[in-house]
Design brief:
The chain starts with 6 loop residues before the first strand and ends with a strand. With 226 residues, the chain is mostly beta strands. Helix content is 4%, strand content 60%.
Length: 226
């Protein structure tokens, strides 16, 4: 506990023939000690997909591209004890009612994601407004690197822009990883970085990391969290 969180998941894929497949993925965070949901149901992901040789078209509530750059290159998975998610102040993890595209896996190590979502006059963190975002990465052997950018235009609070880049190298006895993220909001800017890694230890592993977040408001003093 404190490293990974619990979730309830339903998913499946149906072969439609002619190289097409349809699928669904429903995930909800739960509190195993009480059996309750820790937020709205299907809060983690609620999507339907169409798969073909050209890639995957995905509709619904899903993780945004900029979140994956942080989660993939945070040794704690941007979750629980030691994660940069604990001290981060401006992070969008998911977007409601989105349309996403994922390229096929046979592109020689290239991978990525593109996402758009209509405004719907929303005001919450996961339905804040019109969303445009994308990620591109390259993975080969022990090496992995990715970069992402997003723009979220909210009806009342203006536009939030996010850009980040991350990478990792697996030496076998130690996996080195890290990322840099910059959030630009109408009222402030936040820059955040982490450097860390994981060390295999039998059937377990030891995770280490150092991170820093600096918030620069338009009015007032800067604040830093290590």
């Amino acid at each position: 506990d404190g490293v990974n969180s619990s979730e309830f998941r339903l998913q499946g894929i149906e072969d439609l023939g002619g190289g097409l497949k349809a699928g669904f993925n429903l995930r909800s965070g739960i509190n195993p000690d009480t059996g309750t949901s820790n937020a709205k149901f299907w809060n983690r992901r609620s999507t339907v997909s169409l798969y073909s040789n050209a890639g995957e078209l995905r509709l619904g509530r899903d993780y945004v591209p900029t979140f994956w750059t942080q989660a993939l290159f945070d040794p704690f998975g941007f979750n629980g004890l030691g994660s940069t998610g604990t001290g981060a102040r401006n992070v969008q993890a998911r977007q409601d009612n989105s349309i996403g595209y994922f390229p096929p896996s046979n592109l020689g190590g290239l991978y990525g994601q593109a996402m758009v979502a209509a405004s719907e006059a929303g005001s919450s963190g996961d339905k804040g407004g019109r969303y445009l975002g994308g990620q591109i990465g390259f993975r080969a052997g022990p090496f992995d690197v990715a970069a992402a950018y997003s723009s979220l235009r909210t009806p009342l609070a203006g536009t939030n822009n996010t850009a980040n880049v991350g990478g990792s190298w697996d030496f076998g006895f130690f996996k080195l990883m890290g990322y840099y993220d910059r959030e630009k909001l109408p009222t402030s800017k936040e820059s955040r970085f982490e450097i860390g890694g994981s060390i295999p230890f039998g059937q377990s592993e030891v995770r280490v990391g150092y991170d820093r977040s600096k918030l620069k408001p338009n009015v007032g003093a800067d604040t830093t969290i290590d």
